[in-house]
Write a structure and sequence with these properties.
The chain has 212 residues and is of the alpha+beta class. Helix content is 29%, strand content 29%.
Amino acid sequence: MTEQAKQPRVINKSGTTKMTDAVAATKQTKDIAGRNIEGRNRRRDRVKADVAPKEFDEIAINIDRVSRTVKGGRRMRFKALVAIGNHKNKVGIGVAKGMDVTSAVQKATNKAKKNMIEFAIDGETICHEVETKVTGANVLMKPAAPGTGIIAGGVVRSIIGLTGVKNLISKSLGSANKVNIAYAVIKGLSQQVPRSEWNRKPAAKAAKKETK
């Protein structure tokens, strides 16, 4: 007699015979359609395959509800201000309107990607002091020593937080309009000149005067 025949038969509570360990090891679990379940985990998950690490992080700085008076009454829409950046030296902002919040944010994100700028950075701070004005908003930004952190208001902090700048001193001197402040910050970052190019323009002008 074989070893399997010598093993006692175990009856379950339902009255069926309990299979031995040797038989259970050879069994395959199947679903209601008769397909093997074991191989499902080996398949490529289409949802997970599409999820890749994002190159840019995005943040919705402000969402307003705006209305427009038309012939039939008031037309309600949403206005979104979105900023994106790669935590290095690329950043952009976008403003768009939509019938709902999701569409407004998506449109603003697409605009921000199209209007991205690349600015000069000195270590973990900006290269030099800059003051920019967009309509009524006036923003002053100064470089800071390591360990200072970002000393700025809500809009400026949100935008700078998406860049590689870790130390900055900023002050909003004009209007509190968030859209204008955001554009002023982007304008100030785009005006940054690296230290290596600070003395080039005066030298070029002096050379022109000598030639004359």
